[in-house]
Amino acid sequence: MKLELISKEKNSMELKIHDEGESLLIPLKNQLLSDEAVEYANYNVRHPKLDTPPFYFKVRSGKPQNALKKACRALSNTYKEMLVQFQKQS
Description:
This protein is an alpha+beta fold. 42% of the residues lie in helices and 29% in strands. It has a single domain (2-89), classed as RNA polymerase, RBP11-like subunit (Gyrase A, domain 2, 2-Layer Sandwich), CATH 3.30.1360.10. It is built from two helices and four strands; from the N terminus they run ββαββα. Strands 1-2-4-3 form a four-stranded antiparallel beta sheet. α1 (22-33) packs across α2. The longest helix has 26 residues, at 64-89. The relative contact order is 0.18.
């Protein structure tokens, strides 16, 4: 996975997450939107096989990079817990 920062403003960021698809973008978008500090989050898939979709989000308060870090930590914790539960079942 490679992150490419397209633009960063005081209250927004646009980036591309290379070599990842909607299996990462959808949970990231949903996690960001669950944060009250985030006003908007979305990405635009032009062609699923040929394009890396730009991912854009805007915050109401705070720094956009902090919202992104918070969302990534929350997703990481969710998937760690899922792995623990899966290992218990095996």
